[in-house]
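Q: I'm writing up a methods section and want to include an example of the input and output format. Could you take the sequence below and give the corresponding predicted structure tokens, formatted cleanly so I can copy it straight into the document?
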Amino acid sequence: MVTSGGPVIDHRRLAEAFGDEVTLLIEASRGVAPETPVPTCPGWTVGDTVRHVGSIYRVAQAWLIDGERPREWQRDPAPGQSEESYVRQGYADLREILDFHEPGEPAATWWPQDRTYGFWRRRMTHDTTVHRVDVERVAGTTWSGVAADVALDGVDEALLLWFGHRLPRLGLRGTRAGEVGVCTGGYGWLVSAGPDETAVRRCGEPEARRAAAVVSGEPEAVYLWLWGRNRPGAVDVAGDDDAAGQLLALMRLATR
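A: Here is the clean output for your methods example:
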């Protein structure tokens, strides 16, 4: 169950971040062989990761053009097309559609809480960011970081969309009842998981800190922790360690 949808930052900022992340992903991929394994995406190489990003841009386009979940789309570069060109063209085509519409205009999506064009700008921004992080770390290039406002929105999206919506849709739930407060950037979320309930809602930070377990840290650290891109010690965990561990394990299942 989710109690609210939509980003916590301005859509213009998301549009800016989307373009920046595409550039950073491409630059990072140039510095590493495409067959290099990506540990945070088991079974994938750098080439697979870059192609995935180009592919999901085309999935988003198909959703917006056809108004329903697509069955077919261009999943790989065309013959003779480079992976970089595949990503750039997919981004340009999707961006043209998104820029033509206001973020709040109705559009087909897979989240009932946000059926707008803005959903896709937000979703593609965070998918690109997470995989840019994957490729940068493998390439060993200079760490670009994640801007605090983008990371803060990413925490919100990870919890509300993936934990609160995707997890129940997959029929997955916790094995023990537990409540976790997530706190970062002055914001709070209350996450409940167990055999009988999977729920998340935005709340004030003081309320979140009264939960049995509290996960906190800088926005970038919490964002990457939720996506399994950070070591466990990168965030502060107070209280019920098992409840916090269950949250992380369920996030892995929701986002795999």
